[in-house]
């Protein structure tokens, strides 16, 4: 491949690589889920950047969801059908 043909290929590669890194940055930090099992009891702790924001407890088929809605460390009980998504304060602290 001649230098004249190589330059557009290199430019395209650089552009695609930078776009890939930008998309990764927009995705935000990755969360961590820790699971502990004890008999028929399962406890999952949801963290983002080390900060605990949700606890899910499943015991005897019953599901309990606790969520720190505003980052104050106080957890509120949600519906057992609730989806666990990071609350808005986790997005703010991740910036």
Structure description:
It is a single chain. The protein has a single domain (3-93), classed as S-adenosyl-L-methionine-dependent methyltransferases (Single Sheet), CATH 2.20.130. The radius of gyration is 21 Å and the shape is elongated. The chain is built from 2 helices and 5 strands; from the N terminus they run αβββββα. The protein has 95 residues and is α+β, with helices and mostly antiparallel strands.
Q: Secondary-structure element order, as H and E?
A: HEEEEEH
Beta percentage is 35-45%
E-strand count: 5
Neighbour order of strands in the largest sheet: 1-2-3-4-5
| CATH-defined fold name | S-adenosyl-L-methionine-dependent methyltransferases
Instruction: From the alpha carbons, calculate the radius of gyration and give it in angstroms.
Output: 21 Å
Q: What's the tally of helices?
A: 2
* CATH classification class: Mainly Beta
Structural class by secondary-structure content: alpha+beta
From the N-terminal CA to the C-terminal CA, the straight-line distance is: 44 Å
Keywords: Signal
InterPro entries: DUF2782 (IPR021357)
């Amino acid at each position: 491949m001649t230098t004249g043909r190589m330059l557009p290929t290199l430019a395209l590669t650089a552009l695609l690589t930078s776009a890939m890194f930008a998309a990764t940055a927009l995705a935000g930090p990755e969360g961590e889920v820790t699971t502990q099992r004890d008999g028929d009891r399962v406890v999952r702790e949801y963290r983002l950047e080390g900060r605990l924001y949700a606890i899910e407890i499943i015991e005897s088929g019953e599901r309990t969801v606790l969520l720190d809605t505003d980052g104050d460390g106080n957890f509120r009980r949600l519906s057992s059908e609730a989806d666990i998504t990071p609350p808005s304060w986790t997005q703010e602290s991740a910036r």
